[in-house]
Specification:
The chain contains 22 helices and twelve strands. It is of the alpha+beta class and about 500 residues long.
Length: about 500
Amino acid sequence: MENPKEIINLLPFSSKKDVKLITRAFYFAKNAHEEQKRFSGEPYFTHPFHTAKILAELKMSPTTICAGLLHDTIEDANISTEELKENFGEEILFLVEGVTKLGKLKYRGAERHNESLRKLFVAVSQDIRVIIIKLADRLHNIRTLDYVPEHKRERIAKETLEIYVPIAYRLGIRMLSRQLEDASFPFVYPKEYEKTKNLLRQKKNEDAQKLEKFQKSIKKGLAKNGITKFSLEYRVKTLYSLYHKLIRKDWNIEKIYDISALRIILSDINDCYKVLGIIHGIWRPLPGRIKDYIAFPKPNGYRALHTTIFTGYGNVVEIQIKTKEMHQEAEYGVASHVFYKEGKKKNSGLFWVTRLLPFKAPFKKGKKEKEINYEDIPRWIKELVEYQASQKLESFTNEEMKNDFFQQRIFVFTPKGDVIDLPVGSNPIDFAYAIHTEVGNHTSGAKINGKMVSLDTNLKNGDIVKIITDKKAFPRQKWAEYAKTTYAKKRIRSAIQAKNEKEK
């Protein structure tokens, strides 16, 4: 039997006021859904309850957890907005209404899918908590997909893989993205799922004893060098992630070196680099497999040191070295910064979150409405908000949206070391427009890693790109064909059109 204490006990701390609020929301939602059943035959309330538990596991605030408990009351229990506002206030009502609006969006093909993507991201740009609640809602639904009518399963699972998983990943909430991926995988690609599962099972059985021995060697090696305060965790690559890598490696699992990974979690950044040096002093690393995501974090905020080494037991293993804070951020992403924003926990790293919470959403105060400050919001969210405001929004196709915001990304650098996040297949034209429209419009040439290249050259991870500009330079029609991002294509066509109109 569900109990509000199951949720409250997951929070690291809670005041009497918090406990009272969550308990009140618990019983309000339970009574509202009392007569309803799920496809499984269970009481409907099990769904909002588990949604709220997931939010509590993410360490979200009591306000967000309450919105999770109440998120279906308007849509499915005929609770009025006035009643919800009277009982729980304007902020919780705003979050519930936001989730309700997203709940009406279904994956129905290109046009509707495109509209869903826009609205999802606009919801993110207004208040990040709305999408986190929706992700928790989707996770519980996907866990119980076996009970859904068969003709709906593939659509729901595919929507999860194509929309919700990439959003969770881009927000850095790997705890959610991993679970969403693996729960959806068998419903979308059942044959590939079974094949991947069997390959992983064989590999795990082969490596289990070797890894156990290696973990003991790691502990001894670090202790000998004065590193005693650390924790060691073991993780296996998720099935869906492994599946994508197997495709790239012609289904040869022996070519994949990061199936298993050891995480060394420390308290200090300096210790991370020290431990990396100790490990390389004892074990031989694989060339080209050392990655410093502390100095150059991924766009979603992920930070760690990665290296892959020969263990000496006939296998190789990836080692991830990070601090406790980095590990928390890797699992919970944006959620770790949103958690208890209201003065109880300082935010670090993803400062744009503080621009959105807790009262940046358009709560009406008298006749005035507070504006959202979009400064420091990641480019990929901000650009979509700009697109949404454009009069020509309908010209964006489903494929363009997926290319720009969901495709695998590359990380390239300006000569000053700034990281520019672009889709795979981008070139110097995309890079130039990603920096600034004027830089793009006046591009006359480009250097990659110090060498002059043509403007249609594909960029690779880690490239240092310098754009050469000239006031007399101007976009050419073929640039629009070269460009990978819709953002660059639009700016090029706009500049050419403006010039043509001026010359008439």
